[in-house]
Design brief:
single chain, mainly alpha, 84% helix
Amino acid sequence: MGQANKKKRQVDKGNLAKEGSRYVFIGGLTTLVNLIIYRGALALMMPYGLATTLAFIVSVGFAFYFNAGFVFKKQMQFIDVIKFYGSRISTFAIEILGLVTLIEMLHWGEMMSKILMNILIIVLNYLISKFWIFRGTTHE
């Protein structure tokens, strides 16, 4: 029994490493999509709040599609869609509050503030996705 448990832990660690690598890759692409949309909207003279909202909408759609199918390899149910969008709206609120704090109160640059908030949001979104939305059976 001891050998079987040890082997299972090794397989679990290997799967976690693969999943983590996929999440980092998709998270990087999602961040890139987010930043490109944000920067483009700023270039069109859109206020940063509206620019980050547009970037959020586009990047969440991208993230949902690739997290479900590529990262966590889970067949999605309707409740998972609700959880996903609900959690992303929550972390979006955190991002907006962070941007207002950094840009308006601390007078940091718009892009530096956005990058810093993206790092925080990526970590929060992974933890929420891993332990709440996409937990359970995967189709690996």
